[in-house]
Amino acid sequence: MSESSLKAEATSNIIAEVVKPVSVAVLGSAAFIVTADVRVVNPLLHIIANDYRAEVGATGIIVTAYTIPYGLFQLVYGPLGDRLGKLKIMAWAMALFAIGTAACGLAPDLFTLSLLRFLTGVAAAAMIPMSLAYIGDTFPYDQRQAAIGKFLTAVALGQILSASLGGIVGDFLNWRLIFGFYGLISLVVFGILFRASRRSPAKVNPDIQRGWAAYKPYGRLLAKPGPRTLIIAVFIEGLFFFGGFTFLGAFLRDKYGLAYIAIGFMLTGFGLGNLVYGRSVRWLLARLGGEDGLIFWGGALTFACYLAIALLEIWVLFIPLNIILGVSYYMLHSTLQTRATEMSPGMRGTAVSLFAFSLFLGQGIGTAALGLIVDGPGYVPAFVIAGVGMLLLGTWIVYQTRRIVKKGLVS
Questions:
Q1: 408 Ramachandran zone, left/alpha/beta (phi>0; psi -120 to 50)
Q2: How do residues 5-33 score in pLDDT, each as one tens digit?
Q3: Predicted local distance difference test score (pLDDT) of residue 280
Q4: How far apart are CA 166 and CA 41, in angstroms?
Q5: Which candidate, 314, 224, 231, 316, places its Cα nearest to that of 266?
Q6: What is the Cα–Cα distance from 166 to 265, expressed in whole angstroms?
Q7: The pLDDT value given to residue 204
Q8: Taking the chain (411 residues) in consecutive chunks of 10 residues, what is each chunk's mean pLDDT?
Q9: Cβ neighbours of residue 350 under 8 Å, at least 6 residues apart?
Q10: What was the pLDDT predicted at 15?
C-alpha cells in the first residue's frame, strides 16, 4: 500500500473514532434552534417594519444581515472543525449564539437589530454545516440520504415552531419576547453539545494545515467541475428560493389582511413539507429515477407553487401550496446537500462549509434584490422571478451533472 493510501486510511480511522458516540438527535438539537431562530423573522417582518416605521422590503435587511455572515463564516468554521473537532466548535459557537439571540430582543432601532442579527449569524454558522459534515463522516454514502433526511426533520420542526410561535407573538405579545425565549433554549442546547464534545474528544486531522494555508482547499475544490457546479447551483438556489420565501408572510398580510397568528400557522406548511420529504425520500428516489429526478421535479414543483401563490388570488390555497413548496425545495436541496458531503471525504467540514457559504450568500443577496422588487413593482413579479429561477436551476443542474459524468469529470 502506498504512503498516500496509508495516510488517507489513518485519517479516516481518526475521523471514525471521533464521530462514533454522537447521535443524529444531538446534532438535530442544534439545527432545531438555529432554524427556529432564522425563520422566526418571516411571519414578523411586517410587524417589525411597523415598529421601526420602515418599509417591508427595507426591513428585509435583518434577514440579509443574518444570512451573509452565516454564509461567510462557514469558510472559517470548516477548517477549524476539521482540525479541532466539529463538536467542540459547535458547542462554543452555540454559547455565543445564545447571547446574541437574547440581545436581539433589546434592540432599540433597525440598525442595532441588524447589527445583532449579523453577530448572531456569525455564531450560528457553525451548526448545520458542521452537523452535515459529521453525518458524512459517520454514514456511508448509500445510507447518507436517509440520515440527512432524519436530520432535516429537526430542521423542519424548527421551521414549524418558529412560524407558529412568530404568528402567536405577532398578535398577542411583543415580538421582542421570542428572541429572549430562543436565547434561553439555546443555553440548554449549548449544555447538550458541550457534554457531547467532552465525551467525544477531538483529535487532530494531520492533513489540515494552520493559518491561511488551511483555506487553500477551497480553491482546489472550485477548480474541479463537479464541486464547482454544486457551489454555483446552491448559490442560485439561495438567491431565488429564499429571495422570494422571505416575503411570503408580508405578502399574506398586505394582500389578504390576515392575522399574524394565521400567517404563522400557514407558514408552518413549509416545515410540514420538509417532514413529508424526510418520510418519503426513499420512495421518491425510486419513483423519480434517482437524484436527477429529485432535482428536476423539485425545481419544477417549486416554480409551479410560486406561480400559483402569485397569480391565484385565493388565500386558502396557500396552505397546500406551501406544504408542496416544502417538499419540492427539499427534493432539490437535500440532494445537493448529500452530494456536497462527498466533495472532499477527508475534509468534509471544509467542503460542506463552502457549500453552506454559497447558499447563504445567495440567500442574503436574493433577499436584498427581491426586496427592492417588492417595494417597487410588487410581490407578484418577485414571486414569478423566484419560481422561474428555480425551474431553470433544476434543469441546468441535471444537464451539468450528465455532461460532467459523460466527460468523466465527476470529481
A1: left
A2: 444 444 444 444 344 445 677 788 888 88
A3: 87
A4: 7
A5: 316
A6: 9
A7: 45
A8: 43 41 72 81 80 83 83 78 77 90 90 91 85 75 72 74 71 81 88 77 52 69 84 94 89 87 83 84 87 93 95 90 93 88 72 82 87 90 95 93 63 43
A9: 78, 79, 82, 208, 214, 217, 218, 221, 344
A10: 40
Q: Report how far residue 334's alpha carbon sits from residue 304's, in angstroms, rounded to the nearest whole number.
A: 19
| CB count in 10 Å sphere of residue 4 | 8
End-to-end CA distance of the chain: give it in Å, rounded: 23
What's the pLDDT at 55? 85
CA distances from 79 to 3, 60, 147, 148, 215 (A): 23, 31, 23, 21, 7
CB 299 within 8 A of CB 391: yes
pLDDT tens, position by position, 142-190: 777 677 777 777 777 776 777 677 767 767 778 888 888 888 989 888 8
CA 243 to CA 228: how far, in whole Å? 22
Nine cell digits for residue 216: 487553500
**Could you give the CA distance from residue 171 to residue 180 in angstroms, rounded to a whole number?**
17
- Measure the CA–CA gap between 282 and 155, rounded to whole angstroms: 19
